[in-house]
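Private note to self, pasted from the team thread so I don't lose it. Backbone tokens:
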């Protein structure tokens, strides 16, 4: 008989509200966090050489989610002790990292959790925990900047591509709408204001453009 899955540790904020839960099977819920770079409707890859994956980056502000950050780092240290002789890894090799070095305004004063899944479609839920059925529904319902709960499953990578501590994306539940994140690096209002009424429309040269997804949507 399989051992019953249960919560073994709860991280709470200053108000006593849970912000993260560690389960006996090693999975972790992170609660009430904004999502950026959501690729939940279908697998996505920035480059042809990359394996397409369902993915998301979840934002943990230090003023509300420091206890969750501490729990995630504690879990990471347990993995280092077991798999890497106690040695830590560089920040860019972890699924949880300080958002400041990215210089992205939405990550200021926050840490981020990068989670992805290549083998199995994550479960995507409405606030009432009913399942979102179609890719079109998922894409319409969950946008960058909305608040979510997420279930991740940390795992250790040690192969020809190096050592990393990754997180599989198991499930996401929408909580509520939030301020949209302009992932092109510029807000919609600023983009519109860039076009003057007296512009003659002669753009010339064309030039190449590049999608600024910054490698996110996974690790």
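Design output:
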């Amino acid at each position: 008989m399989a051992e019953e899955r249960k919560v073994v540790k709860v991280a709470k904020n200053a108000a006593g509200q849970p912000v993260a839960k560690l389960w006996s099977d090693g999975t972790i819920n992170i609660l009430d966090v904004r999502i950026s770079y959501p690729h939940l409707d279908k697998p996505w890859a920035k480059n042809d050489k990359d394996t397409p994956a369902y993915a998301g980056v979840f934002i943990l502000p230090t003023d509300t989610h420091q206890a969750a950050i501490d729990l995630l780092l504690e879990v990471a240290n347990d993995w280092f002790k077991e798999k890497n002789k106690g040695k830590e890894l560089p920040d860019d090799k972890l699924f949880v990292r300080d958002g400041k070095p990215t210089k992205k305004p939405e990550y200021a004063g926050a840490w981020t959790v990068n989670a992805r899944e290549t083998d199995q479609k994550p479960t995507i839920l409405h606030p009432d925990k009913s399942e979102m059925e179609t890719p079109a529904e998922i894409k319409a319902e969950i946008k960058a900047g909305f608040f979510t709960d997420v279930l991740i499953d940390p795992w250790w990578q040690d192969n020809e591509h190096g050592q990393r501590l990754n997180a599989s994306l198991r499930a996401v539940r929408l909580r509520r709408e939030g301020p949209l994140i302009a992932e092109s690096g510029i807000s919609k209002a600023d983009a519109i204001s860039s076009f003057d009424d007296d512009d003659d429309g002669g753009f010339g040269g064309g030039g190449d453009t590049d999608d600024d997804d910054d490698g996110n949507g996974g690790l």
